[in-house]
Amino acid sequence: MDRKIGLEEHFAIPDTLNDSKGFLGDHVWPELEKRLLDMQEYRLSQMDKHGMQMMILSLNAPAIQAIPDVKKATETARKANDFLAAEVKKRPDRFQAFAALAMQDPDAATRELVRCVKDLGFRGALVNGFSSIEKESMVYLDDRRYQGFWAECDKLGVPFYLHPRNPLPSASQIYEGHPWLLGPTWAFGQETAVHALRLMASGLFDRHPKLQIVLGHLGEGLPYSIWRVDNRNAWTKAPPRYPAKKKLGDYFRDNFHLTVSGNFRTQTLIDAILEVGSDRILFSTDWPFENVDHAADWFDACPISEADRLKIGRTNAERLFKLL
Questions:
Q1: Could you read off the pLDDT of 55-90 as tens digits, one per residue?
Q2: Is the confidence at residue 211, as pLDDT, over 80?
Q3: Which residues are catalytic, by number?
Q4: DSSP string spanning 195-244?
């Protein structure tokens, strides 16, 4: 399929580059470094070769969310956003942008989101999970301090991409002795799924029913598990013990979109389609941590209807991000 649009596609600036160094082996670091820093050459050649019209670009992880110095986090986010805006301006037909935000300071993050959307033309924001305000702190986005931020996000009408990060060492006891489970193997998905469930249960979408959250990797395992989340021990008829007014699956189907980034598996895609519908699934590659050809070759050949392929590959993104 030609003219695919991907929206979990990363880059780095020198300030955040080393945040990506530990996820893959040292022997591939030179290649990954080249991929992260390149914007207009190798990246575009891969897109052209495999039928990608556009990437919506975002900063690597954990980057801003892992900077406990609030002033430095805010300055680095602004620096990354200004750099990205300049790159997008060179080829707006091929690149669009998500804002990096220092959620350590909710007011400053709100102002930066407004600047990026209204002044720079960004299509939304991508945040790498919880934010560290102190070295071992984890502040999640259902916290009351973010109510003003979410209100502004809703007012702007832009989606918010909730991207993974690893849990802090102090919260990683379950992975002790098994470091291979960290990162995209398992910890990314577990951490982000719980974060998404917290947002659903908090009442956020009762206050802002039009707000849209994007999850990568075909939903971080939630399509497979959301029924059980709502229906465990159903014979007891116990009411939910959370503030939200509806079942969490209702919010999942009404307020979330999923991308295929880094999860190129037909059976998993079909499960996601059955749970949330093909109108809420979007193509992505997870470049540069995954290959464009691995994503594109699988997606172009996977046995789904051509109508669904067109929606997932391009038109859902055009609608959600107002690209037309």
A1: 999 999 999 999 999 999 999 999 999 999 999 999
A2: yes
A3: 286
A4: HHHHHHHTTHHHH-TT--EEESTTTTTHHHHHHHHHHTTGGG-PPPSSS-
C-alpha distances (whole Å) from 134 to each of 76, 131, 217, 231, 276 are 17, 9, 29, 37, 37
Nearest to 289 by CA among 1, 11, 53, 4: 11
Q: How far is CA 30 from CA 27, 287, 293, 295, 324, in A?
A: 7, 15, 20, 22, 37
Q: How far apart are CA 134 and CA 294, in angstroms?
A: 39
**β-strands 281-282, 4-11: how paired?**
unpaired
Tokens of 200: 């659903």
Give the DSSP H/E element, type plus range, for residue 126.
Answer: strand 125-128
Q: Where are the beta strands (DSSP E) in 13-74?
A: 52-59
Helix (H, G, I), strand (E, B) or coil at 112: helix
Q: Which fold has domain 4-320?
A: TIM Barrel (3.20.20)
- Looking at residue 115, the DSSP 8-state letter turns out to be I
Domain-by-domain residue ranges, the chain? 4-320
Nearest residue to 107 (alpha-carbon basis) of 76, 66, 145, 60? 145
Nearest CA among 258, 265, 272 for reference residue 299 = 265
